[in-house]
Design goal:
2 domains, MetI-like, 290 residues, mainly alpha, MetI-like fold, globular, single chain
């Protein structure tokens, strides 16, 4: 009994230390972003408990056209991309869940093949280039419209819906499209919320594909701008949109960088509480059949 209590105490202390070490970088970014510039300079760039808080860094970043333009691009990708991805994924998953579909098995094997094997970066780039999508925001949406893994997970959910609902709807005169939009989708809101969150986070964090396909700095998403802010200011000053932010001489570059990290992270974090009600239920639906 004493040994188990001792083990629990030691385990709790170790996990607490790991938790503090994990949260410290987040705390430091938050604190520095709100530290008064004069205090930050006077303390030579190391502040844990600021004596004076300031919003100057946030006010400046939020007033720059580069940040507002990049935020608009990221919001566009998250909203439009998530909506289209949900439609494509749900439609494909619903079709695969219907046993009367004759090509159901070949389609499932093709989707499974995309999960197991990836063609690589060069074939992806050649495909996007030949489609004429280079330097277009659609190059960040169309190749990421669906995921084979998400299709199978959503198919598992659709399999759990009783076929009697479909049969009753057919007797009322609904066709397959009407059944999907009027019966299936309203019953699938928890699953749609969960997968919508996954897609929204993916589109909001778009970085690597934007580096490959987007050459115009006015079409950069927020993560690309943030990367240019975080790297050396000498690189940021070479004609990029981040130069507008980093050229400010009255504010320390470090406080601007930390504020940029916060404003790039907070918007997507605010989505979680809104979908929390459906998120856990949506992830588990279809995993266990009653």
């Amino acid at each position: 009994m004493k040994e188990s209590r001792l083990f629990g105490a030691v385990n709790g202390v170790l996990l607490g230390i790991v938790g503090i070490l994990t949260l410290f970088p987040l705390y430091y970014v938050f604190v520095v972003s709100f530290t008064d510039p004069a205090e930050y300079i006077s303390k030579q760039g190391f502040v844990l408990f600021p004596e004076k808080w300031s919003l100057l860094s946030y006010k400046y970043i939020l007033s720059t056209s580069a940040y507002l333009n990049a935020t608009g691009v990221s919001v566009y990708l998250a909203v439009v991309g998530t909506a289209l991805s949900l439609i494509v994924t749900a439609s494909l998953a619903y079709g695969l869940s219907r046993k009367r579909l004759k090509i159901r098995r070949p389609l499932m094997l093709m989707i499974l093949f995309t999960i197991l094997f990836s063609p690589g970066i060069i074939p992806h780039y050649i495909l996007v280039r030949d489609l004429g999508l280079i330097n277009s925001l659609w190059s960040l949406i169309i190749p990421a419209l669906s995921s084979g893994w998400y299709v199978f997970l959503m198919k598992s959910f659709f399999d759990s819906i009783p076929p009697s609902l479909e049969e009753a709807a057919m007797m009322d005169g609904y066709n397959d499209v009407g059944i999907f939009f009027r019966i299936i989708l309203p019953l699938s809101l928890p699953a749609m919320a969960a997968f919508g969150l996954f897609y929204a986070v993916g589109y909001w964090n778009t970085y690597f594909t934007a580096v490959l396909y987007i050459n115009d700095s006015t079409k950069w998403p927020l993560q690309i701008l943030l990367q240019n802010i975080l790297i050396d200011s000498s690189t940021s000053s070479q004609g990029s949109g981040a130069a507008e932010i980093m050229n400010e001489q009255q504010l320390p570059a470090q406080t601007l960088k930390m504020a940029a990290v916060v404003v790039a992270t907070v918007p997507i974090l605010l989505v979680y509480p809104l979908l929390q009600k459906h998120f856990a239920k949506g992830v588990m639906l279809g995993s266990i059949k009653e």
